[in-house]
Amino acid sequence: MNSTIARLVGGRLAVGVLTLLIVSLVVFFLTSLLPGDAVQEQLGQEATAEAVAALRAQLGLDLPVHLRYFNWLGGLITGNPGISLVNGMPVDDMIASRLPNTLKLAAVTTLVSVPLALTIGILSAMYRGSIFDRYSNMLAVFAVSVPEFLIATIAVLIFAVKLGWLSALSRSVEVESFGELVRIYALPVLTLCCVLTAQMARMTRAAVVDQLSASYVEMAILKGARPIRVVLRHALPNAIGPIANAVALSLSYLLGGVVIVESIFNYPGVATLMVNGVVTRDMPLIQACVMLFSLGFLMLVLLADLCAILSNPRLRK
Amino acid sequence: MKPNSISPKASIGSGKDNALKQDGANEPVRTRRRRLSLSVGGVIGLLIVTFWALMAVAGPLFAPHDANAMISDGYFGPLSLEFPLGTDYLGRDILSRLLHGAPFTIGVALAATALACTAGVVLALVAAASGGWVDALISRTQDALIAIPNKIFALLMVASFGSSVPLLLLMAAFAYMPGSFRIARAVAVNVMTMDFVQVARTRGEAMPYIIFIEVLPNMLRPVMTDFGLRFVYVVLLLSAMSFLGLGVQPPDADWGSLVRENIEGLWAGAPAVLAPAVAIATLTMGVNLLIDSFGGRSKREMEK
Predict the structure, then answer these.
(1) A83 assigned to some structural domain
(2) Above 90 in pLDDT, residue B6?
(3) ipTM for the assembly
(4) For the CA atoms of B39, B43, B46, B51, what is the dihedral angle to 10 degrees?
(5) B266, A173 in Cβ contact below 8 A?
(6) Looking at residues B42-65, what average pLDDT do you find?
(7) Has residue A43 been placed in a domain?
(8) Does any domain span residue A199?
(9) Left, alpha or beta for A224 (phi > 0: left; psi -120 to 50: alpha)?
């Protein structure tokens, strides 16, 4: 790593932290604009004014809004995002118990969709304008225009109802055998993969096509290299950076996709926790979840930037 | 002022004509074909979009039954002459409910998209025209808003302010404004460096004149493409929220809520659950096909 790369990466990190700060401001003030008085709700209508005031003081709600923001932000940074208004549990414990499940789901989806998308993308770039290219393009348009819940419902209809192969709900996430792994993850992963693979394949195709129109590829073709060799040996190594960038950016789709998929399949992850939090208006939990998802997004964007920077040979020694 | 305001228009016009003539000289056949007809997909898309646009305005008038009347004894009834799309979990006519839901799904999404794109474009023009710290401030804020995934932002807004229709509209507009801003700013910055804008600046035109007369008309095409894509995203977001039960609330129902309330019918393979889902899919695919035939696909890849 030389100093140029270090400076670029440092700059990206600084922008990321600044963005996260702005996000925290937006999140905090959106949730505090209409207090809806959670305390009053929690204690019920008959609560005495003293009881309400006492609980408000205990929760720190009687402080001015900017102080509350700094308290909350400080708590967030030190890993103490507050106490759930609904069941009194620490928010970080609630999230910690669910986060591994969501990460597992995301990991399995990534492992399935990335190789698939790369294969489709590279093949359709190699055979531009062929029937395969046109059909995969049509399928991709279909996949990104259809709501996830339609894909999920059709998948359930086919695999769980008509064929009876898989269960429609993910009741447990304890995996003991390969069969069980397939049974639990097949439908949620299939649903998430549809959109993700479509996006990634399209971007991969664009990156490879971009390289194939470069003059060194023309040279390789004129030299008599076979098409496969031109793509795999000449074009692909140069497209790795843009492709890695595309993969990282596409993965950010997962951050929204899991909300629907976890809810449909009743999967015990962070997204279902957050949806339940919205139903019960558990503000500390929601704030923490939004920050967590935004952090995930920023990390993926940072990863994409890193891929772009590190794959640029002009920045290497 | 008068002669000044005419001359730049004339210069833009002639410049465009020249460009077209050059295209025509290079590839006369292709240009003519493109002008005369959309692709097959484009025609299909146009038909679907026109159909749903009509339904969004007049859909409820065509409803054969009262959308909220429980008129059939059969729950999750099959397709029949009386109930063309079957009946729902309370024995209500699905076709009528679908038609009554069209203004919610299409109208709200359209209004939200219009709001998002207008706000995005105005901010982009201000940022591109001012440059300097104003540009930096606006761009940084919009980037921060992009960092909150749309569905997560939607959940946050609904948790804070409830889920009335005006709020859903504002929420969707706010969620998609940063993306619109990003595209519009990139285009605006490009147009700003064009010769005719430089000429207008040198001539000493006021900023509003430059923005609205010189720059905006030249941004229209990419902005319209972006509008179509954003509309699709908004429809999907609002349907998803309704599907989670956090969108349009009963007794009103958009297509996402129809899927949600009939989800039990899935086990029987009832048309009640598939019909509204397919309606959403045809709407979004129609818009996508239409945009594709205008060659807007590369814009989507740029953004995603």
Answers:
(1) no
(2) no
(3) 0.83
(4) -160
(5) no
(6) 81
(7) yes
(8) yes
(9) left
Contact A145 B259 (CB under 8 A): no
Answer whether A274 sits within 8 Å of B148, measured CB to CB: no
Say which range, B73-82, B161-170, B222-231, has the weakest mean pLDDT. Answer: B73-82
Residues A302 and A177 in one domain: yes
Residues A23 and A151 in one domain: no
Question: Does the structure show a pLDDT above 90 at B200?
Answer: no
Does any domain span residue A155? yes
CB-facing half-sphere around the CA of A213: CA atoms within 13 A: 7
| pLDDT at position A317 | 53
* List of chain B residues whose C-beta atoms are within 8 Å of the C-beta of residue A162: 269
Averaged pLDDT score across all residues of chain B: 77
Q: Find the CATH number of the domain harbouring A196.
A: 1.10.3720.10
Task: Please give the tally of structural domains in chain A.
Answer: 2
Is A242 within 8 Å of A207 (Cβ atoms)?
yes
Residue B125 at interface with chain A, using a CB cutoff of 8 Å? no
- State the DSSP H helix or E strand holding residue A243, giving kind and residue range, or none if neither: helix A236-251
- Whether residues A72 and A125 share a domain: the answer is no
Query: How many beta-carbon pairs under 8 angstroms link A with B?
Result: 141
Q: Is the pLDDT of residue B21 over 70?
A: no
Q: Report the residue from B140, B145, B239 with minimal CB separation from A147.
A: B239
When the pLDDT of each residue in chain A is averaged and rounded to a whole number, the result is: 81
Check CB contact under 8 Å for A145 and B281. Answer: yes
A259 close contact with B: CB closer than 8 A: yes
- A197 and A51 co-located in one domain: no
B236 touches A: beta carbon within 8 Å: yes
Same domain, A54 and A115: no
Residue B245 Rama label (left phi>0; alpha psi -120 to 50; beta) = left
Is the separation of the CB atoms in B191 and B197 below 8 Å?
A: yes
Name the minimum distance, in Å, from the CA of B4 to any CA of chain A. 43
pLDDT tens-digit series, residues A285-311: 888 899 999 999 999 888 888 887 887
Nearest to B172 by CA among B111, B257, B123, B121: B111
Residue B172 identity (one-letter amino acid): A
pLDDT confidence tier of residue A168, bands split at 50, 70 and 90 = low
Question: Structural domain of residue A125, as residue ranges?
Answer: 98-311
Instruction: Say whether residue A169 is in contact with chain B using an 8 A CB cutoff.
Output: no
Q: Examine the domain organization and report whether A177 and A140 are in the same domain.
A: yes
User: Could you tell me if A21 and A137 lie in one domain?
Assistant: no
The pLDDT confidence band at residue A60, using thresholds 50, 70 and 90, is low
- pTM of the model as a whole: 0.81
Judge if A200 and A113 occupy the same domain.
Answer: yes
The closest CB to that of A153, out of B140, B141, B266, belongs to: B266
Task: Pick the more confident residue, B135 or A87.
Answer: B135
